[in-house]
Amino acid sequence: MYTVTVDGAKCTGCEECVSICPNEVFQMSDGKSDPHQGSECVFCESCLGVCPSSAITISEL
How far apart are alpha carbons 44 and 31 in whole angstroms? Predict the structure, then answer.
C-alpha cells in the first residue's frame, strides 16, 4: 500500500496527474491537485513522470 502527497506550494494546477492516473487517485481542489483516493495508488509512477514541478511524492506504508 502507498501514500500519495502533493506539495501545494509546488503544484501548478496543470491537471496532468488527474488525466494520466489509471486509478483516479487525483482530483482538483482549489486549483491544485488533491490525492483524495491515495489508497488506490498502485505505484505505476505515471503521475511522477508527467508532473512538471515534481510536486508529487509516493511513499510505501
Answer: 24
Output the pTM of the full model.
Answer: 0.93
Residues spanned by the domain of 32:
2-60
Tens-place pLDDT, residues 15-61: 999 999 999 999 999 999 999 999 999 999 999 999 999 999 999 98
Q: What is the CATH number of the domain that holds 35?
A: 3.30.70.20
Number of domains in the chain: 1
C-alpha cell recorded at residue 45: 509512477
Angle at 17 between CA 43 and CA 44, to 5 degrees: 15
